[in-house]
Specification:
- The protein has about 220 residues and is mostly helical.
- The chain is about 75% helix and about 5% strand.
């Protein structure tokens, strides 16, 4: 009985990591450039406000600043090019609003949002999305700690090079990227319900469509 339970858990875990978060139809990328530009400006403003909260409201502000990843990810979902534009514009806004948050945004929450958006487009599995995002976040944190000598993770992590610290940072980066990916996916699926023609398909819809297509090719009733 225990062996059967472990097999079911393993099967569920494998299916979870092998399937995508959702599918994006091309309709979303064919919006008018003016619409994309306006949306990019709005999302960049939200990203700058969220990121600046860490400097204006110590404590709760750091929780709010973690939400910066979402607007950048949404802009990238609309268009990879406009997502990078949103990332660049937000850097300029943060530079004027809260310069102390510039490094954190540029190398962690901001670039993480852009890579997540690109990964949602290019990667077909959750595993690759989380892995690519985690590696990007890890490299960003390493750059801040050991190149700019800024204690981005707090006083508990020094700016000197130690392998145990690298391991902990790697684990933190993967877990953080996983949570960020799930949060962005959750919001996108909720937004999909308000968009015309279901331009974003939840993963369950994708699986059902593939099953029906396979059954149809084999002339089997699903």
């Amino acid at each position: 009985m225990e062996v059967g339970f472990l097999k079911r858990v393993k099967s569920i875990a494998v299916q979870y990591w092998q399937h995508p978060f959702f599918e994006i139809k091309r309709d979303l990328t064919e919006w008018l450039p003016t619409t994309k530009l306006i949306l990019t400006a709005i999302l960049s403003s939200f990203a700058a406000i969220f990121q600046s909260a860490g400097g204006y409201m110590p404590g709760i502000g750091f929780v709010v600043s973690a939400m910066t990843t979402l607007p950048i990810c949404l802009a990238t979902i609309v268009s990879v090019r406009y997502g990078f534009l949103s990332y660049s514009v937000t850097i300029l806004l943060v530079l004027f609003i809260q310069p102390s948050e510039l490094l954190i945004f540029s190398f962690t929450t901001g670039i993480l949002g852009w890579v997540l958006g690109v990964s949602f487009y290019k990667s077909k599995t959750r595993l690759m999305v989380v892995f690519l995002s985690g590696v990007t976040l890890f490299m960003g944190i390493i750059a801040i700690l050991f190149i700019f000598r800024f204690p981005v993770l707090g006083p508990g992590f020094g700016t000197s090079f130690h392998f145990p610290s690298l391991f902990l940072i790697a684990v933190f980066s993967i877990l953080y990227a996983w949570i960020a990916a799930e949060a962005c996916s959750f919001v996108l699926k909720r937004l999909a319900q308000t968009l015309p023609d279901r331009v974003i398909k939840p993963v369950n819809d994708v699986q059902d469509r593939r099953i029906k297509k396979k059954c149809k090719s084999q002339k089997i009733e699903p």
